[in-house]
Design a protein that fits this description.
Distance between the termini: 39 Å
Shape: elongated
Number of helices: 5
Largest sheet: 4 strands, antiparallel
Radius of gyration: 20 Å
Structural class: alpha+beta
Helix content: 10-25%
Strand content: 25-35%
Strand order of the largest sheet: 1-2-3-4
């Protein structure tokens, strides 16, 4: 566990930015450092907005910034993904980082509901039951990951269906 908060500069942007080991990103404005707001992008990752030299905004993941400026780009160099150890995506600290391969992440997400029955409700409340996520996705013209997002990520279905996994 860290006792002192460390700060590292984030070079290459229009304004001076820095990041702490606790995941706080700041911008130097009018003679003082101001905390930037962190937002959860599509429920997937915590990110901040920075300004490039040409003035355009770019979104950067806080875990990616931590990895780049505190661990020398370990994940980028090895083709790994970064995720929180405790599962809380907004808890972006150096101590809460863990590295995974894309295959490890994919296995975890598919194992949640791949073999459980799925219910689909239409606009009128009529239910259709499917034996698995894969079967439901195939019969409704979706990918399994797209249906998984509708089941767990809160993504609305443009056709008006509501999805539910039977426990």
């Amino acid at each position: 566990m860290r006792t002192m908060t460390e700060w590292r500069d984030i070079p290459g942007y229009k304004y001076p930015y820095r990041i702490s080991s606790e995941g706080v990103v700041q911008q130097f404005v009018r003679g003082k450092w101001k905390d930037l707001s962190v937002r959860l992008e599509r429920g997937v990752r915590a990110e901040v907005r920075l300004r490039r030299m040409d003035g355009k905004q770019v979104h950067r993941g806080v875990f990616r910034l931590l990895d780049e400026y505190f661990r020398g780009g370990y994940a980028r160099k090895r083709g790994l993904k970064i995720s929180p150890k405790n599962g809380v995506k907004t808890d972006c600290t150096l101590d809460n980082m863990t590295y995974k391969t894309q295959a490890e992440i994919g296995r975890k997400s598919r194992s949640r509901s791949a073999k459980k029955p799925v219910l689909r409700y239409d606009k009128h409340g009529n239910a259709t039951i499917y034996g698995s996520v894969i079967e439901a996705a195939r019969k409704n013209g979706l990918s399994a990951s797209s249906l998984d997002r509708r089941l767990y990520g809160g993504v609305l279905n443009p056709r008006g269906y509501r999805w539910e996994v039977l426990r």
